[in-house]
Amino acid sequence: MAQPNPPSFGLDDFSLDDRMRLFSYVTADNRTAYLWVLRSLDAARSSYQVVLHTSEVASAMAGLSATYPECPDPAGL
After folding, report:
1. SS in 3 state form for the chain?
2. CB 37: neighbour CB atoms within 10 A?
3. How many angstroms separate the CA atoms of 60 and 77, rounded?
C-alpha cells in the first residue's frame, strides 16, 4: 500500500527561485538588522504572540538591545 505524501503547505506551488527569495535578506546591506527583527519576532512567538505591530517589534528589539549590545537601536532603523 502506498504511503500518503506529507502535506507540503503550498510550498510545491512555488519554484526554487521563489522560495530562495525568502533568504534575500542574507545579502542585503542591513542584514544584521533583519536578523535582529527576526529574533524579536521569535521572542514574541515564544510567548504565543503571533501578530505584531511595528511598535511592538521596536519594543521587543529595545528589550533585546538591553541584553545584547550588538542589537541595533530600533529607532535608527
Report:
1. CCCCCCCCCCHHHCCHHHHHHHHHHHHCCCHHHHHHHHHHHHHHHHCCCCCCCHHHHHHHHHHHHHHCCCCCCHHHC
2. 22
3. 14
pTM, entire model: 0.58
Q: How far is residue 73 CA from its own chain's centroid? A: 17
**How confident is the model over 6-45, as pLDDT tens digits?**
665 555 665 666 666 767 767 778 888 888 888 888 888 8
> Which residue type is seen at 61?
M
Contact assessment for residue 62 and residue 74, using Cβ atoms and an 8 Å cutoff: yes
- Of 59, 31, 28, 24, the closest CA to residue 43 belongs to 59
CB 31 within 8 Å of CB 25: yes
